[in-house]
Model the fold of this input.
Amino acid sequence: MDPVILSLIVFVAVVAMVSALAYVFTNVDSTKAEDRLDVFTGQKSAAGSTNNSIVKDELIREGMGGLSVVFNKLVKKLSNTRQFFEQADSPIRVDTFFIISMVLFGVGVLLAWIGRAPTHLYPVVGLCVGILPLGWLWMRRGRRLNKFAVQLPDALELIARALRSGHSLGSGLTVVVQEMPDPTSQEFGIACEEQNLGIPIEQTLQNMLKRIPNMDLQFFVTAVVIQKQAGGDMAEILEKIGKIVRDRFRIMGQVQALTGEGRISGVVLMVLPIALFFAVYYLNQEYIMLLFTEELGRKMIGVAAFLQVLGAICINKIVKIKI
Done:
């Protein structure tokens, strides 16, 4: 087989594998409870809505089948690229990010050429180097969202104390901006600015929920919406939500400790075959090249890649316990 064609096949296979991993590991499909919260906060319509356009869209999606649903979800995620950068509080713009990724892809190809790697490995090495900015951005987003989740119970308690002392909910948000560190103060500051511009507080909180996809924050927004409509002791509700969030973090810590061995085993099992491949390649290049020059070897690589992805999915499903 022509090395160029083989390189393209390997490149497409690696891209497909990375995309599948990203899609599976970032699957944030809402549960029934989350759907009900979305209905309360106004982000979704009720099941009995008579909106003809929504009904038509549902019929079309059902008629297209499961593949179209997956494609629509993928397109939706790609369309939220700018929101992804906002969630990560990225210091660089989207266009600059893609330019850096392309430059690093070229650097990876150059490093493969300098290291005298086989031609069909050029796109693989380039892709591995090119996705480094994406990995950095993903970790930055995860750290920021986790930090917000940890700070949210304290923010809710501050708002509850402000309400008990006679302040309004808007003043309670201002107290959070003044007392809490980033990213909580930053997000609540945006909500306060929107409220000062005349946007209703329910809408400002819904906008913050779009920026910060957090289940506990969704409880807070739902409580505010219900309290505005039906009344009630808002301070007591916020204190109970804060207590529930703290208990959930305590249980989550115990689960993380119990599943630590499985997560480490998953990392080792994913990294070990790749590391062993490169070690054998530099020790005995002719031996490892049989995987690319022989038809059976290429089939073995395809099966190994598929089993790697399947194993990663299985391990992730085992150790990932939603609380």
